[in-house]
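User: Can you write out an input/output pair for a complex, sequences first and structure second?

Assistant: Here is one pair. Inputs:
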Amino acid sequence: MKNLGILLSGRGSNFEAIADNIAAGKLDAKIAVVISNRADAPGLESARRRGLNALVIPSKGRPREDHDHEVVAALRAHQVDLICLAGYMRLLSPWFVQQFPNRILNIHPSLLPAFPGLEAQKQAFDYGVKVSGCTVHFVDADLDHGAIILQKTVPVLDTDDDHTLAVRILEQEHIAYSEAIRIVLEGKYSIEGRRVRLA
Ligand code: GAR
């Protein structure tokens, strides 16, 4: 069984969806550790309630490399095979990314490369796009940038505001992340440049 390490900074609904899929037998993996850079992240409390190892490694006011070294040490201590960024609002240092080549995933609430960064759903809504969605991708040293594993589309309705759009995108995120984790853990893909081919 493969070990997952989850990094989060906030609400943790993507983490919860992954944990629920594991509990329901839909995803064959174990969450070895949940790490937050913020002590007040609701996702941490949820991890504790589920009886998971939940660590706070505060990032505020610390040099990125120092913080990243501590996080990597914790991931190694828990023998993590795959790292899932789940609303982890920090850019990983190039050193961190090099420690786990093609072993770090991120989810982002837009169809990348459109609307990287913060409040992607609002960015998309304000831009006036007719279709948005979410992206699960390998992590590289650039923000919301690595090779794309899968995307789910969500139509923008005339009745939407940025909030209702974000809610429907989040529903798709919760499906997409576990699908992508399954693909990666089962090794059913190959990477050619930026293109991830699914087997
Ligand atoms: C999710 O919408 C995720 O896609 C986004 O943060 C939210 C976290 O929600 N991530 C990014 O914007 C990464 N650039 P959650 O804590 O409920 O999973």
